[in-house]
Structures are given as structure tokens and as C-alpha cells.
Write a structure and sequence with these properties.
This protein is of the alpha/beta class. The chain has 5 helices and 10 strands; from the N terminus they run βαβββαβαβααββββ. It starts with a strand and ends with a strand.
Length: 187
């Protein structure tokens, strides 16, 4: 079973053209920022942790980089879990696609969960600052939002999470050095 949690997102300053090659400069778009909850037997796996709940109903929204993308959250991840009778402490596994803030904003809600993260991503956000200020800001925000998880499991390459081929984390560096995708076989 898979269920999607979401936050509304709008691109400011015509940033659509930054994301979509060939898109007209100056045009903005709206889309959803999602994370997914997957049930495997009696286990729950959360794929990404969404936009921080601290931004809930903030009319100014929240951004990973000022004035680039603005996120508006009108329902917290905690409340979306409660709608199906779950608490954050029921989620045993939190797998991170990459460490941009809109994907790890609520990792701190899961202090007892095992956090599955690509080693290359962890090493990247803990590397020295480079010449690109935007990247430096994103790395600093990632370190802040990730904190120091008690059960951090760093992964190299691809991983079959439950050993039965149902949920596989696939290394796909590019968007960030340790980005990855999730392959799910639903039954
Ligand atoms: Zn990203």
C-alpha cells in the first residue's frame, strides 16, 4: 500500500524555466511536493519527509532558497498520518531521496526511526563549502534539518530494503550527488 502526503508549491520569479528546459522565462507554475508512505507487512516506510511542519499555514510560505521556490503547507505530515491512525513513532523506516529541504523537512519527527540515506549524499552535505553560495546554503539547511539521527543507515549503491524485491532504493546521482529513486512493486 502506498499513500501520498503533499504540500502545495509555487515557483516564484519565473523559476519554471530553471526546471524545464525550453520553458518560457518569466512564467511560474504550481505543483505538489510529495512524500510517500508505504506499508510492507507490518512495517511502514516513509519515502521522504516533506516540507517542515513549522511552515504550516504561514502565509509567507517557506523556501529552501530565498525567492526561488515557495512552499505552502496547509496540512501537517503528523495530521496526515493521524488520518489513517498512525503516529510518527509508528514509522520504522524513513528513506530519503535526497537532502533538499523540501524532502527532509520533518526528519526530526522520527527520532527513533531508521533513516536510510545514501552515503554519497551524507558526505556531500558534510563537505567543505565551495564557490556556489546557493549550494552552500542548501548544504547548510540539509545539515540543520537532518540533525544527528540516532539510527542513521548509510547506503552505497542500490538496496533491496526488505530483501524480497518489493521496495528497492536505486542510486541515481545527478540532481544531487547522492540522489536516488524508489522502485515499488505493489501487490
Ligand atoms: Zn531537490
Amino acid at each position: 500500500m502506498a499513500r501520498r502526503a503533499k504540500a502545495a508549491v509555487s515557483f516564484a520569479l519565473g523559476a519554471f524555466s530553471l526546471m524545464m528546459q525550453g520553458a518560457p522565462v518569466g512564467r511560474g507554475i504550481e505543483f505538489s511536493s510529495t512524500c510517500w508512505l508505504i506499508k510492507h507487512g507490518r512495517d511502514w516506510l516513509l519515502w521522504d519527509a516533506g516540507v517542515p511542519e513549522s511552515s504550516l499555514n504561514d502565509p509567507r510560505g517557506w523556501s529552501t532558497l530565498p525567492k526561488l521556490i515557495v512552499y505552502h503547507l496547509d496540512k501537517s505530515l503528523t495530521d496526515q498520518l493521524a488520518e489513517i491512525g498512525l503516529k510518527p513513532s509508528d514509522i520504522g523506516l524513513v528513506a530519503i531521496s535526497h537532502t533538499h529541504g523540501d524532502h527532509i523537512g520533518n526528519v526530526s519527527l522520527f527520532p527513533n526511526s531508521t533513516i536510510l540515506m545514501q552515503r554519497a549524499e551524507y558526505n556531500w552535505i558534510n563537505s567543505a563549502n565551495g564557490p556556489n553560495d546557493n549550494l552552500n546554503q542548501l548544504m547548510a539547511l540539509a545539515r540543520k534539518l537532518l540533525g544527528t539521527p540516532r539510527n542513521l543507515h548509510l547506503i552505497d549503491g542500490d538496496t533491496d530494503v526488505f530483501g524480497d524485491g518489493s521496495i528497492t532504493l536505486i542510486s541515481k546521482p545527478g540532481h544531487t550527488p547522492g540522489s536516488r529513486s524508489l522502485l515499488v512493486h505493489l501487490v
